[in-house]
Design goal:
By secondary structure, this protein is mainly alpha-helical. The protein is built from two helices and no strands.
């Protein structure tokens, strides 16, 4: 019984090692290397796209803050609300 156990254990370990080595050898073929490079480039493109989207969102948020801070989006004053320099309540007209 012990010999049968060790035989089964050896066959299982041998099969796992062969599968692992086969996968490693497949990755070293030109097709495997090309697939790895393609996956890496795809991941890089996704990361660059995410970075660009984050930058655009931050730009829009900052522009909104600047517009609110400078009053660029507020309505224009009407004619009676406009006060020209030198024409205030102090002038002697």
């Amino acid at each position: 019984m012990r010999r049968l156990f060790w035989l089964a254990m050896g066959i299982t370990i041998g099969a796992l090692v062969v599968r692992k080595l086969s996968r490693a050898a497949e990755k070293m073929t030109p097709a495997g290397i090309g697939a790895s490079i393609a996956d890496g480039l795809r991941d890089l493109a996704d990361a660059i796209g995410d970075f660009g989207a984050d930058v655009r969102d931050a730009m829009a948020e900052r522009e909104q803050e600047l517009r609110a801070g400078t009053g660029l989006d507020s309505p224009l004053p009407t004619g009676d609300q406009v006060q020209l320099p030198g024409r205030g309540a102090h002038s002697a007209d």
